[in-house]
Amino acid sequence: MTVAQILDGLEHSDTTGSDAERAARLCFLEWVLNVEGTATPRAAREALSDPSVRNASSAAARAFVEFLEQATCPIHTGAARAARRQRHVH
């Protein structure tokens, strides 16, 4: 499913509060599993460039956009930090 398709579905949702967030989370997971390539911060930034994102108005659609925004931040795990440190040890 594309971001536009997901947002279109969420715009038809009249859920609010935790129900809207739950619907958005499920759709975000759907996006993660179906994004072309790998779901990376770059892929999330590209998804946010879709024109339909700017028009998100329902609570569920806005929550989905927030999940995409959060996904643009890279996560640095302890293993990744340790690997970088190993490369710099001489």
What report would you give on this structure?
This protein has 90 residues and is mainly α. It has one domain. 70% of the residues lie in helices and 0% in strands. The chain contains six helices and no strands. Helix 1 runs antiparallel to helix 5. The longest helix is centred in the first third of the chain and has 18 residues. It is elongated and about 50 Å long. It starts with a helix and ends with a helix. 23% of the residues are buried.
Write the layout of secondary structure elements.
Blueprint: H1 3-11, H2 17-34, H3 41-48, H4 51-54, H5 59-71, H6 78-88
Helix pairs in contact: 1-5, 2-5, 3-5
Question: Which features would summarize this protein structure in a list?
Answer:
90 residues; mainly alpha; 6 helices; elongated
β-strand number: 0
The total count of helices amounts to: 6
DSSP strand content: under 5%
How would you spell out the order of helices and strands?
HHHHHH
Q: How many individual domains?
A: 1
Helix content: over 70%
Q: What structural category do the secondary elements indicate?
A: mainly alpha
Computed over alpha carbons, the radius of gyration is 16 Å
Distance between the termini: 47 Å
Mean pLDDT level = 90
* Coarse morphology: elongated
> How would you sum up the major sheet?
none
Q: pLDDT below 50 for ≥5 consecutive residues: which ranges? A: none
